[in-house]
Design goal:
Elements: E1 6-11, H1 19-32, E2 36-40, H2 43-48, E3 52-54, H3 82-94, E4 99-104, H4 106-117, E5 121-126, H5 142-163, E6 166-171, H6 178-186, E7 191-193, H7 201-213, E8 219-224, H8 230-241, E9 246-249, H9 261-279, E10 285-290, E11 293-298, H10 299-303, H11 311-320
Parallel strand pairs: 1-2, 1-4, 4-5, 5-10, 6-8, 6-9, 7-8
Antiparallel strand pairs: 2-3, 10-11
Helix pairs in contact: 1-9, 5-6, 6-11, 7-8
The chain binds adenosine-5'-diphosphate and 6-O-phosphono-beta-D-fructofuranose (F6P).
Amino acid sequence: MTTIKSIAVLTSGGDSQGMNAAVRAVVRSALFFGLKVYGVQRGYQGLLNDDIREMDLRSVGDIIQRGGTILQSARCSEFRTEEGQRQGAENLRRRGIDGLVVIGGDGSYQGANKLSKLGIRTMGLPGTIDNDIPFTDVTIGFDTAVSIVVDAVNKLRDTMSSHERSSIVEVMGRHCGDIALYAGLASGAEAILVPEVPFDLAGIGKHMKENFANGKRHSIIVMAEGVGKAEDVSKVIAETSGMDPRVTVLGHIQRGGCPTHNDRILASRLGDFAVRSLIEGQSGKACGVINNELVLTDIDTVVNTKKAFNMDMYELALRLSQ
Ligand code: ADP
Ligand code: F6P
């Protein structure tokens, strides 16, 4: 088994709450097992620019509770080129770094997969609020993002009930509807619009009109950004429901704030697991938690698999929102 003596860690793509907890776990676990550990600043951009510095126990002090990422993140188009990937791999090799932990979403996993094919020992940690990474029950940041949306909907429900209005709430998720689905179910939304399931918007508006006549005097529609613009949904709802809709686009507020304890624990478990897996000789793997078990899956498989949508949960939300 190859002896791993030093590793690096980077955060990439859309940041998410819990990334700092994951970086902390990677650094502290690596040092515990006698490895040198380096932080790469600004994701793959930093890898390309050789913006890499050694970390110690104190480098990750007092960050488990902080949103964002002390290593910062970036979206780096240059790294999508083979030349950029080779430059990144060369920067690691020149420093004698034996392995790399990439904390990011599906795009970041694509980059990690390319580095793996260039001979770099890589481990992927699912760091994104979107929850669009397969072979893990949940991604780091998703729980916190959902809790932010649920809190926002609670506040909106107060004022919508005061004025007998409907609220259209647009949430993040890129092409995945999980934030809308989980937050919609948890907040009792009257309708949940996701890209994975076709819907009849005019029919939803008419149903809201009937409900209004039967005493349901306000309503909340949670929509994933992947289905379109909240303003467009609002126009159709205004025409068909007769209610006076208001639009809230939550945007990047879903990406900040203190990570929940769930995200801190998930990130800590996965960060330590990534380090131990590298030490044991694993490479080119994505770390995940399935039924509370830590699992490794070939990154190549992960990037070529679409995350399954939880139709049972969607149908439950429909049944309970009558
Ligand atoms: P996320 O990781 O949150 O999905 P992005 O899709 O922006 O965020 O991906 C993050 C970074 O990963 C990109 O800015 C780019 O540097 C790198 N990346 C994305 N897709 C690829 C790819 N197909 N090949 C190589 N690198 C990629
Ligand atoms: O991938 C995470 C995410 O927050 C998506 O949900 C969202 O569509 C995107 O990032 C926003 O990207 P940016 O932060 O670059 O505007």
